[in-house]
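Hi there, hope your week has been kind to you so far. Would you mind checking whether the tokens look sensible for this chain? I owe you a coffee for this, so here goes:
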Amino acid sequence: LRSFSASQSTPPNSLWIWRPGIYEDDEGRTWVTVVMRLSPLNREWPGGLSSQGSTYEPGITVHVRQLPVHTPEPLSPSQLLFSQLLPVWQLYPRRRYQAANSSFWEIVDQIVSMEQLVLTYWPARND
């Protein structure tokens, strides 16, 4: 991975959870979750199987920003069980990350000047 700067706009190859809301990339830089937002998604059941016609499945949008964070040692996996976000994201073709659970998160915005990524997960697109 090269520097994520105005001259090199490549997102990190990998992000590993360090503490809830804090990730580390393959260069040892920390990325902090600055915004996490759920968005409603109404999806029709195939063949009209549901009496209500749709289900509620939230999409998730996460803003992560590269910020230096001085934290103690990372938490153990058992201490991270209650983190709402995934433990690992791996950069994949077509400007998206594949998470440890095989879901895909699209890079919907990249603010190079702030070293910020905006990632979105939509359940309907991951079936």
